[in-house]
Design brief:
- The complex is a heterodimer of chains A (249) and B (571).
- In chain A, 33% of the residues lie in helices and 16% in strands.
- By secondary structure, chain A is α+β, with helices and mostly antiparallel strands.
- Chain A has one domain: Lambda Exonuclease, Chain A, CATH 3.90.320.20.
- A four-stranded antiparallel sheet of chain A has the order 2-3-1-4. Chain A has a three-stranded antiparallel sheet with strand order 5-6-7, with helices on one face.
- Chain A is flat.
- The two termini of chain A are 29 Å apart.
- Chain B folds into three domains: 84 residues, Methyl-coenzyme M Reductase, Chain A, domain 1; 251 residues, Methyl-coenzyme M Reductase, Chain B, domain 2; 159 residues, 2-Layer Sandwich (Alpha-Beta Plaits).
- Chain B is built from 25 helices and six strands.
- In chain B, the strands form two sheets. In chain B, strands 4-5-3-6 form a four-stranded antiparallel sheet. A two-stranded antiparallel ribbon of chain B has the order 1-2.
- In chain B, a hairpin with a 6-residue loop joins β1 and β2.
- Chain B is globular, with a radius of gyration of 25 Å.
- Classes of the chains: A alpha+beta (249), B mainly alpha (571).
């Protein structure tokens, strides 16, 4: 019988959404053009070539190596791209994703990624074009909401703050704004540098939709203590780690 | 605990729904999920304005720019959200958070000064040398005379040589030595000015424990001058003490300055009979004794004195140790010695401001007392057996309660705006509660780590990168069969293998060490000598109430030692 990953325990919508984020089986909700993505990432001018740190692998005359033969390089590695980053911030107020599940998702679905997981932000470093694939996938799917998640390379403060009066997660650098047409637009890049044009991120999810799609437990939505299987599973992890340290066998 | 009884409610209401300076934060509720962001910058806050003005004056005076809030984020200053003050937990002292950085807080500096400049030196070895080797009679009278001599010499007074340079007494007025003993008869004979009287300073039950542990031995609690300790380092403390001890013995007992027995006295003072507050660190973190990285959690638990003034409230004891520990280990040790920078203050203050941790821990106390028949009350017969099931029950309830507070009170979440802050607070509550209930520090540690796992899964995030290392492998080390990894929490310290780099933990671990013993009603956690040494109101820093002292420091009401105004031009 073929192995079917279970990904995550739990009987609630939050647990189910976590399984979706880990498996990559998420709904596509919007599109972002390559140039718009390049602009808000801020690593190179839109439309310009990728900068490289080494020649394409095909030109480098790599040594005989079984690992190299076994592992197909990612497109970015093959081309010699430099390593760049995308960093997401997710609001605690039913933001669609949370840092650990962005990391799990990146590590499971994509190759050549280096996810970093913090409380307010989650960073993925990868060869630039590979990173862009990861970023695009998340921005275009239910892993992202223009109001409750955000791209922030630096000065990431905001995930745990009260929402602005317009329902958008506070950003000290004011990189994205909900405009009168109901669309959230970025007018600065990830690190807060103004960009040449406003990039549309789309309409925010309704509060009801965000509550349905979120991966964070909240007592006013899906209470953590209500998902007994998840807590039981954490207890099992804790039991086993404790006992293994005492008597490894 | 009913919502209207949340211990943090009053403070958060004042902090978040009242105007401070010109931050326009009037109105709203602490449960509101939406806030107003006026982006007023530093102009809204009196302390920031004071700092801005000082920066401008400095630039003008020296012709070189300095502090300028507009350098933040390329011209977007701090204060894009409201700058709000905080309350020191357990008090009604409202302070500016800038004033909780140790550079801006004289009380915090003095707490560390008072630890670093302290050593305990046994006097019995010296007496044996005098009596057995030299045939000199030692009596209470000679001891009193020796102590009078030492209290002249220890600050830097000359005792046996002519034409000597001395330190000015007004600059070293915080330097002295007292003694203590478990021998009531000897204690009765000691001049009261020199004695730390165990019977007077401790509740009777604790005094009996301490005297039984100390026995007939006698110890000197020595505090070298703050200014000396600051100019040199913690390792200087025992050297300074040993030199002045040697000179004082020579003088008080009319010894020959060059006789070999003096070397024995020095050896006893420097090595054989000395206890430092912190152990020396290995070369990769090279620090001598009495630097913060070597102060074990058990030692810090004993340095803090809340357990003798409020023994019936183990949670309060633990909370004061949290405050002291977060300040010492996070703000000074990790924040400066190990990393540099100023940001660690934000992590640390979360654990001792605005009563959020206090609320969580006292909720746990109620839960434990209800479910485990008063196990959170002081005592030894009422403790619940430390099993994994008990750890899971208490730590899980504590963590879920704390997480739900952040979810129900957006202002609490905003106050602890980083996951590392929340992780510290939640785990300190879970760990200390488990320790109080079981009287077992490592059960408390176990609760700490379970809390980290639960927190991570609940919110899908924990602290910064480093939390994964320390906290994900933490449970494996609580009862590890490997001797260093499996140490009792009392003997662990900042240099324990996995604890060396992670802010927001060590104050909590110290609290767990203290909670286990406070829960049992023990007089001390690991070292009775240290507990007695700091039971001394002559110290500039009041170790019975570290958090209140930090508040006094922030309000600029604390008078530190080691000041140099006597020898510098008046401003």
């Amino acid at each position: 019988m073929a192995y079917k990953p279970q990904y995550y325990p739990g009987a609630t919508s939050v647990a189910a959404n976590r399984r979706k984020h880990m498996s990559g089986d998420v709904e596509k909700l919007r599109e972002i053009s390559d140039d718009d993505l390049t602009m808000i990432l801020g690593h190179r001018p839109a439309g310009s070539d990728y900068r490289s740190t080494h020649p394409p692998l095909a030109e480098m005359g790599e040594p005989e190596c079984s690992i190299r033969q076994t592992v197909e390089p990612t497109p970015g590695a093959k081309a010699g791209d430099r390593v760049r980053y995308v960093q997401f911030v997710d609001s605690m107020y039913n933001g669609p994703s949370v840092p650990y599940f962005r990391s799990y998702g990146a590590a499971i679905k994509f190759r050549g990624v280096d996810p970093g997981t913090l409380s307010g932000r989650q960073v993925v470093e990868a060869r630039e074009r590979d990173m862009e694939e990861v970023a695009k996938f998340q921005i275009e799917t239910e892993m992202f909401d223009p109001a409750l998640s955000s791209l922030r390379g630096a000065t990431v403060h905001g995930h745990s703050l009260r929402l602005q009066e317009d329902g958008v997660m506070f950003d000290m650098l004011d990189r994205a704004r909900l405009e009168d047409d109901g669309i959230v637009k970025m007018h600065k890049d990830q690190v807060g540098r103004p960009i040449d044009k406003k990039v549309q991120l789309g309409k925010p999810m309704s509060a009801k939709e965000a509550a349905k799609r979120t991966t964070i437990y909240r007592v006013d939505n899906v209470a953590y203590r209500s998902d007994k299987e998840v807590i039981e599973w954490v207890h099992r992890v804790f039991d086993q780690r404790t006992k293994y340290g005492f008597k490894p066998e | 605990m009913a919502a209207d009884k949340k211990m943090f409610a009053k403070h958060l209401e004042i902090k978040f729904t009242k105007e401070h300076g010109a931050n326009k934060m009037e109105g709203g509720k602490i449960t509101d999920m939406v806030g107003k962001y006026y982006r007023l910058g530093v102009e809204q806050n009196p302390r920031k304005l004071e700092m801005k003005k000082a920066g401008q004056e400095l630039a003008k005076k020296r012709g070189l720019v300095g502090y300028n809030p507009m350098m933040h984020c390329g011209g977007i200053p701090l204060g894009q959200r409201a700058l709000t003050p905080s309350f020191i937990s357990g008090t009604d002292m409202m302070v500016e958070v800038d004033d909780l950085h140790y550079v801006n807080n004289a009380a915090m500096q003095q707490m560390w000064d008072d630890i670093r400049r302290t050593c305990i030196v046994g006097i019995d070895l010296a007496h044996e040398t005098l009596e057995k080797r030299l045939g000199i009679e030692v009596t209470p009278e000679t001891i009193n005379f020796y102590l009078e001599t030492l209290n002249h010499a220890l600050p830097g007074g000359a005792v046996v040589q002519e034409h000597m340079v001395e330190t000015h007494p007004a600059l070293v007025d915080d330097c002295y030595c007292k003694i203590f003993t478990g021998d009531d008869e000897l204690a009765d004979e000691i001049d009261k000015q020199f004695l730390i009287d165990i019977n007077k300073e401790f509740p009777a039950e604790q005094a009996e424990q301490l005297k039984a542990a100390i026995g007939k031995t006698t110890w000197q609690a020595a505090h070298i001058p703050t200014v000396v300790s600051r100019v040199t380092d913690g390792a200087q403390t025992t050297r300074w003490m040993a030199m002045q001890v040697g000179m004082s013995f020579i003088s008080a007992y009319s010894m020959c300055a060059g006789e070999a027995a003096v070397a024995d006295l020095s050896y006893a003072a420097k090595h054989a009979g000395v206890i430092s507050m912190g152990e020396m660190l290995p070369a990769r973190r090279a620090r001598g004794p009495n630097e913060p990285g070597g102060v074990s959690f058990g030692h810090l638990a004993d340095i803090v004195q809340t357990s003798r003034v409020n023994p019936e409230d183990p949670a309060h004891v633990a909370l004061e140790v949290v405050g002291a520990g977060c300040m010492l280990y996070d703000q000074i040790w990790l924040g400066s010695y190990m990393s540099g920078g100023v940001g660690f203050t934000q992590y640390a203050t979360a654990a001792y401001t605005n009563n959020i941790l206090d609320d969580n821990l006292y909720y746990d106390v109620d839960y434990i007392n209800d479910k485990y028949n008063g196990a959170a009350k002081k005592g030894t017969d009422n403790k619940v057996k430390a099993t994994l099931q008990v750890v899971k029950d208490i730590a899980t309830e504590s963590t879920l309660y704390g997480l739900e507070n952040y979810e129900k009170y957006p202002t609490a979440l905003e106050d602890h705006f980083g996951g590392s802050q929340r992780a510290t607070v939640l785990s300190a509550a879970a760990g200390a509660a488990t320790a109080i209930a079981t009287g077992n520090g490592n059960a408390g540690l176990s609760g700490w780590y379970l809390c980290m796992y639960l927190h991570k899964e609940g919110h899908g995030r924990l602290g910064f990168f480093g939390f994964d290392l320390q906290d994900q492998c933490g449970a494996t080390n609580v009862l590890s069969y490997q001797s260093d990894e499996g140490l009792p929490v009392e003997l662990r310290g900042p240099n324990y293998p996995n604890y060396a780099m992670n802010v927001g933990h060590q104050g909590g671990y110290a609290a767990i060490a203290s909670a286990a013993h406070a829960g049992r009603g023990d007089a001390y956690a690991v070292n009775p000598l240290i507990k007695v040494c700091f039971a001394d109101s002559l110290l500039p820093f009041d170790f019975t109430a570290p958090r209140k002292e930090f508040g006094r420091g922030a309000l600029r009401e604390f008078m530190p030692a080691g000041e140099r105004s006597l020898i510098i031009p008046a401003k």
